[in-house]
Amino acid sequence: MKYFAVLLFLIGATAPLRAQTKSSPDVAADKKAVEAAVQTLFDSMRASDTTRARSVMAPNLRIIILSKNPEGVTATRETSGKQFLGMLASRPAQTLDERSWNGQVQLDGDLASYWCEYAFFNAEKFSHCGVDVFQLYRSPQGWKIVNLAYTMRRENCNLKAIPPK
């Protein structure tokens, strides 16, 4: 009876460890999938492809833009995924080009964030730079962008760091 009690204790004590090991996702694969979702959004912008953009967007995507107003005070604007898709559909392909570097992924289960520096070009002309911060969640169809916040500035842009097209 004593051995049976010890055996039950060991099974009960190690069950959470086995469950955690079985359900733990492959972190490296998740990081690559998060990066791929963000890159898909950038590629869809370049191609003005709303179908491709929608494939990595949550239906309730929210976009927050932070920039300085003429008085130098940080102002915020908010737009929806639907508005973003409308803007994208109105642009000819190869007009919008967002290039990113120094991307960093953070994961916690089905939640991810992706932070990167970026430079934005409109019709091949430099427009602005800043930082993008994406929040994504794991859906049955893959990683979806649910929130995007980014800064916009024209000063203090490290133009030498911008990756080639």
3D architecture notes:
By secondary structure, this protein is an alpha+beta fold. It has one domain (25-161): Nuclear Transport Factor 2, Chain: A (Roll). The protein is built from four helices and six strands; from the N terminus they run αααββαββββ. A six-stranded mixed β-sheet has the order 2-1-6-5-4-3. The protein is globular and about 45 Å long. The relative contact order is 0.17. Mean pLDDT is 89; it is low at 4-8 and 14-24. Keywords: Signal. This is Nuclear transport factor 2 family protein.
Give me some keywords for this one.
165 residues, alpha+beta, globular, single chain, Nuclear Transport Factor 2, Chain: A, 6-stranded mixed sheet, 6 strands, signal, 42% strand
